[in-house]
Protein 1
Amino acid sequence: MSVFELKMPKLGESVTEGTIGKWLKQPGEVVAKYDLLVEVQTDKVNTEIPSPVAGTLKDVKVKEGDTVPIGTLLATFETSDAAAEPPDVAAAAGSPAAAANSATPPARAAASSDVPAAPQLPPTQAAPPTQAPRQSPAAAPSASPQGSSPSSVAPAPSSNGDIRATPVVRRLATEHGVDLDRVQGTGLNGRVTRQDVEQFIAQPPAQGRQQAPRAAAAVQPEMPQAMAGDETVPLTQMRKAIANAMVLSKTTIPHAAAMMEIDWTHVAKFRDSVRETFKTREGYELTYLPFAIKAVTIALRRHPLVNAKWTDQGILKVRAINIGIAISLGEEGLVVPVIKNADELSITGIARAVRDLATRARGKKLTIQDFEGGTFTVNNGGTLGTYLSYPIVNPGQAAIMTTEAIGKRVVALDDDTIGIRTMGNVVMSFDHRIMDGATAAGFLTDVKAWIQGVDPANVALS
């Protein structure tokens, strides 16, 4: 018999750690190759990791609920097949079989069911710290940092070299001038988490930034006294990911917003003209959302700053137009998967892409690849009846636009008469470091012009 070591796989280019959700096998159980072994939750996706070998699960090294870096030893197996090279676990986790069993991925999004904001942390390839971080006994023999380009993340203060923290946490600390020596870590074996840094930043100087190195734990707000009938709802991994992304966005991105009213009458008439044909062919209704997304893709080409990213080296204008779409999962939260190269799709192509993502999201079939590469987010809160909302920009993007409720209103027309038109607002939140209000207004003007000009003569459905 020989011993095989299972390590935390890398489940995406920007994923640096994972949380053990549930062990599906227990020590002493015989495990067949490709049996689902453990649920792993990350800030991108929840998935079930299959066993890469056949054997007996000997020992579990990481408890349920613990968060550990990529490469950490998770479990050991007794196996007689020592000569066989085990398959890449990360690749197996991303396979169709694993995707079909993946749990719902967390998003970085806003509060309404179709209003995303920051479901989605930006892909970040970070350099390993200059000094190896302290490791837990379980992780020490097997953890191997998987950083890459040092230029993608600002260097952490030199005094932080021996602090246990992920590259994402180090970057956040550097951006806010926080010395990690002064932050009390509440994570596994004293690891400094993103929440620790965010709480430290939010404290008044007397309570936080003037503390002695590694002093008392960050001051926690006093919990209100429970009353009769009150209920505490435990935080799911998805809700924690949404909360972390929202805090990151609002503490690192200076938000501004612009709103414009749009006359959707021509789109409404166009939808009516193709309603039955489209539904017969596709099997579902043609909504307003594909038209909003099409207008956005056209406007993004004319306003490249809206399709950009903020970096320490400068503003990065991104060529690809990949649109994130919010999909509600009810009380679980929402996810924001991405339509890749949305500018190359027709109205029908966009509608099919939205339908596919929504179906797989609600069936818990989305994979890491469905969340990567987003450059702009379109949000559809109007399906819930909202007239005006304020979406939060996804970290790593420059802006997000929401379409509000669309319906018939009495309006004053250009010829000074009164008419009934199909009207709706669009709201755009943007990173004020990347663009100013004039750029945002110009972008929305082009979105408005395309939507108001829709008619069967100039819009190809397919």
Note: Confidence is low (pLDDT under 50) at residues 88-92, 94-161, 206-218.
Protein 2
Amino acid sequence: MKILNVDVAVIGAGSAGMTAYHAAKIHSKRVLLIEGGAYGTTCARVGCMPSKLLIAAAEAAHAITDAPTFGVHGGTLRVDGRAVMARLRAERDRFIGFVLDGVEKIPAAERLSGSARFITAHRLQVGLDTEVVAERIVIATGSSPQVPAALTHLGARLMTSDDVFDWQDLPDSVAVIGSGAIGLELGQALHRLGVRVALFGRNDNLAQLADPAVRACAACCLGAELDLRLCTEIVSAQADGDAVLLRTRSADGSERNEHYRLVLAATGRSPNLNGLALENSGLALDARGIPHFDAHTMQCGSSAIFIAGDINGARAVLHEAVDQGRIAGDNAGRYPQVLPGLRRVALTIAFTEPQIASIGCTGDQLPVGYKAGEVSFRDQGRSRVMHRNCGLLRLYGEPGTQRFLGAEMIGPRAEHLAHLLAWACQSGMTVGQMLEMPFYHPTIEEGLRTALRDLQENLTEHVSEEAHCADCTPGM
């Protein structure tokens, strides 16, 4: 048995693990990066980047379909599925290449291939022939797609989001199971590329939206284009020749039997806990088997073990994984002097059309007595100009302080509004201070000003009609 003694062992070489490794190296010379699978982050291989490549192709196809609205008529739309997927894979592989370049810069002696499992709080078994003795450990093993047990028997007809981006061609039909961000993004993109798609959700949740009004608007906007079937149960699924026979039951009890070439399970991702043998670490675990940890230091209890990224089941998005990795690696490197790191305002975006975003405090996180303001994009000037006039923005504020707390929205170019709102929220701005910022005409941001004015009125409850229209612009 080969034994390696190190200061810090980082389990997992994804976005969180790579960041943790570099942060730990600032303090410790002996840092080891352990990876049990292929190098290349979830984002580059099967997440952010390949999904946006598919969405970009879908947007190009939709632009041709939507062109007659503007009096512009082209030829017959033709989607070359093989060409779409070839470009996606080629660009995806370029992104992976950038990640691999970073890995190659790490000395070979500080990289170890193999699956790690805890023997004790300071000892890891890696593969069959190596034991790592580490003073401190960072767990950053990421996540994997969930697959409902009722679908596992479908074999090659069952797909996950990890499988989609290796397709050689587009299928003729897909049943998408799951109405979270992954299911909505992939389902709409495939639909716009000519695939017959039905998207099933077991309840009325859409992309984890907490605000009932925004969720209802999202169902209306997306359902106008996509075969969206919420509050629908999958009764059974069985292989039938070269297809899958799917039996579903809607909320009113009616049932449907339909054939789809493939079933895409998009019901979320689960932390990669299997094989870690965390029961040997001495850590206190929650009901899911995830160690209890401090979200500001990423430290597990008072131990010398830290956790970062999707493995901890909180805020599973890339920028959060990087932040957590930096905090975990820094504290593992400097242990026992553990310090809180920068945690940013919550920000999530689903790249549907319209886009969906959540910022700051939402849902149950909002304090009792909060106030809301809103704007519909139905008649918002710039949105109508672009023929993207569907959506709703809801803002939340704190009475008394008038501090901006957070927002949820579905609307055109929400990714840009979401960043403005996240910056304002993290800066602790009040609604009044946000209204003092410049708003150009005609822009979608004018809709934000309308929502801010509505929120300000609800916070103060005595704004006059003259003050309400003090800076109104025709067509705003």
Note: The chain has three domains: 2-145+270-334, 149-267, 347-468.
